[in-house]
Design goal:
The structure holds two protein chains of two kinds.
Chain A lengths: L18 H14 L5 H11 L5 H13 L4 H44 L3 H26 L6 H16 L4 H24 L2
Chain B lengths: L1 H17 L8 H11 L5 H13 L7 H40 L3 H9 L1 H19 L3 H16 L4 H14 L5
Helix pairs in contact in B: 1-4, 3-6, 7-8
The chains are: A mainly alpha, B mainly alpha.
Chain lengths: 195, 176
């Protein structure tokens, strides 16, 4: 699919991964990635294994951020597909989620088994509270760039109200709010670009 | 059993296609479906599963196979995993074919920028829903606050903060 122009350039040596390398590469990422796999993925794909350039990586990431789904999940599919077609996509995605799935279910079995033990219950209550705190921090981090955009704040608040307070279905909420949100951003954009 | 698996497949397929802005945007809807509509678990259990998934390595949506396992054992894991990762992966494949054509169009940037406020609203809703499920004692609310502040103002590793929360929890202070 990709015929690297860099073949003529001896400075940059790219190695196209095989299906097995895609699997093992993402397997490793799945095992070592705590709280954010994406930066590690970039290091592995661009710097260590040199499957693609930083620019190509950023471009693929742009596509994955545009689509629904976790960025790293979509990235594994896109990278696998780019080099080895559907087999590569499957190998990369399976590699990424295989080990974490096994680990998380192992933890789930332990939790189910010991959840009546008060110590374990207390431990997990504390863990859950800490995880909630991390999510609060993430919400703050992504909300801050909106602070001088009243329309965006209003849309975010409406969305919060619908989902967290009124507990409305996500599909209906998105069908109503997404077009409004896009339209508002488009109108404001035009306003800013015309003097 | 089959009807449960079909319900799981439908729920997670829909979530897969609605997860604009990443996995954390769909937590409230996931909780609404599995706790409030289907009563497969309590809100507390859902919060605990979210915490387990955060404590494990890998992408952040590992709560998905965990819910599948809790509801319908291994078939549940298979169904939820396929339903969550299948549709968005297919979409990625299709979009890759079209991306060259639409990535430089102005509407692409407009749509992407236009969805940001939605993502902010949804992630904030996730934080509220998960906090509500987790902070049912004063000490737990204090852990939520401490971790939120530490994660926002320091560069401490998330695992360190999860470990801190687990230890304070284990001490049993303020819990019955």
């Amino acid at each position: 699919m990709s015929t690297p122009a860099s073949l003529a350039d001896p400075e940059i040596s790219r190695t196209e991964p095989t299906v097995a390398q895609l699997f093992t590469g993402f397997l490793l990422l799945g095992l070592i990635g705590f709280g954010g796999v994406l930066p590690l993925a970039r290091t592995m794909v661009v710097e260590q294994r040199r499957w693609m350039s930083g620019k190509e990586f950023t471009e693929l990431l742009g596509l994955c951020q545009f689509l629904p789904g976790g960025n790293i999940n979509n990235m594994s599919v896109a990278i696998g597909l780019k080099f080895r077609g559907p087999a590569g996509a499957l190998a990369a995605l399976l590699g990424l989620i295989a080990a974490p799935t096994a680990i998380v279910i192992g933890l789930g079995i332990l939790y189910d088994h010991y959840q009546d033990d008060p110590h374990i219950r207390h431990l997990f209550a504390g863990l859950a509270a800490a995880a909630a705190g991390l999510l609060v921090a993430m919400a703050v981090k992504i909300a801050l760039p909106l602070r001088r955009k009243p329309v965006a704040i209003a849309i975010a608040l409406l969305c919060f109200l619908a989902i967290a307070i009124l507990r409305l279905p996500l599909l209906a909420t998105m069908l109503v709010l997404a077009p409004i949100s896009v339209l508002a951003s488009w109108t404001l954009d035009k306003g800013e670009n015309t003097p | 059993m089959t009807s449960v698996l079909i319900a799981l497949a439908l729920i997670f397929t829909q979530l897969s296609l609605l997860a604009f802005g990443g996995g954390n945007t769909i937590l409230p809807e996931m909780q609404r479906q599995v706790v409030e509509i289907h009563h497969w678990m309590s809100a507390q259990q859902f919060g605990a599963m979210f915490a387990l998934a955060q404590a494990a390595p890998g992408p952040n949506m590992m709560i998905v196979p965990l819910v599948g396992w809790h509801v319908a054992s291994w078939p549940g894991v298979l169904v939820t995993t396929l339903a969550k990762f299948g549709p968005s992966s297919l979409l990625t494949g299709i979009a890759m074919q079209l991306w060259e054509r639409f990535k430089d169009r102005p509407w692409r940037r407009t749509v992407q920028a236009g969805l940001v406020p939605m993502t902010v609203g949804l992630v904030t809703a996730s934080a509220a829903v998960i906090t509500q499920a987790s902070a049912h004692e004063w000490i737990l609310a204090a852990i939520v606050a401490a971790c939120a502040i530490a994660a926002s103002t320091t560069r401490l590793h998330p695992l360190l903060l999860l470990g801190f929360g687990a230890l304070v929890g284990l001490s049993g202070i303020g819990q019955i």
